[in-house]
Amino acid sequence: MGKNKLQRFAEMNTFSNVFQPTHNEVWEKDYTLKGKWKQEVFKNNNPIVLEVGCGKGEYTVGLARKYPNKNFIGIDIKGARMWIGAKTSLEEKLDNVAFIRTNAELLESVFEQGEISEIWITFPDPQMKKVRKRLTGTRFLELYSNLFSENGIIHLKTDSNFLYEYTSYIIQENKLSVDISTNDLYNSENADDILSIRTFYEQQFMNRGIPIKYQKFSLAGKKKFIEPEVEIELDSYRSYGREKRTE
């Protein structure tokens, strides 16, 4: 592990807006803050918006700047990346921002039913060969549904044709309510100032001429989901491997 990473991990331990549950604190048991994030962390009753796989936290921080009347939590297992967003929000004194370093599969150990109002999924690994790991797949939709208040909203922003098409089939198969679905966000009428928050990787994709896709849909209280029986052409431009990114 590089010296820079070690320094970031050490500094993360001092950040008041970062929570790093141990394996024993969340594995097959409830985290101590489950159901208490509003009162004990944010000290208000505002809605909580979650960014799953937040990376450097650009969206978590960007949304928090625009919506001081909402609370924003970024979750990721990569602490060295998360350090950037956590440090930025502390420097800007954004008291409606927090970060959790843990696996997305453990969300139900961290949040209570009805504790989350919206979820953002920004440029995840499309997991073309591992359906159980797709963040818009049926496994995760059922997990999100158990966290949402009645009309929980999901936002997906991606460069991946594969993930966009797969999620479209998920929405169609399960008859989910869609507010927005576009395969070229910045050449559509939906590119408002919120959607135009751009992550580091998003800007890289745009510089390469890759259209950005966006979907906003609701689970509307649905608890069980059907996996679509379709085959989708793989993205040739994804071969460089997202998992190799270390910064």
Q: Layout of SSEs?
A:
Elements: H1 3-12, E1 18-19, H2 23-26, H3 37-42, E2 48-52, H4 58-66, E3 71-76, H5 79-91, E4 97-101, H6 107-110, E5 116-122, H7 138-145, E6 148-158, H8 161-173, E7 177-182, H9 200-207, E8 213-218
Parallel strand pairs: 1-4, 2-3, 2-5, 3-4, 5-6
Antiparallel strand pairs: 6-8, 7-8
Description:
- There is one protein chain.
- With 247 residues, the protein is an alpha/beta fold.
- It has a single domain, classed as Vaccinia Virus protein VP39 (Rossmann fold).
- The chain is built from 9 helices and 8 strands.
- It has an 8-stranded mixed sheet with strand order 1-4-3-2-5-6-8-7, sandwiched between helices.
- Helix 1 packs across helix 5.
- The longest helix has 13 residues.
- The relative contact order is 0.14.
- The C terminus is likely disordered.
Q: Beta-sheet strand percentage?
A: 15-25%
Roughly how much helix do the residues carry, as a percent range?
25-40%
Which sequence of strands runs across the widest sheet? 1-4-3-2-5-6-8-7
Count of separate structural domains? 1
CATH topology: Rossmann fold
Q: Any idea of the CATH class? A: Alpha Beta
Q: From the coordinates shown, what is the CATH architecture?
A: 3-Layer(aba) Sandwich
Distance from N terminus to C terminus (CA atoms, Å) equals 12 Å
Give the class from helix and strand content and strand pairing.
alpha/beta
The SSE order reads HEHHEHEHEHEHEHEHE
Overall mean confidence score, pLDDT: 90
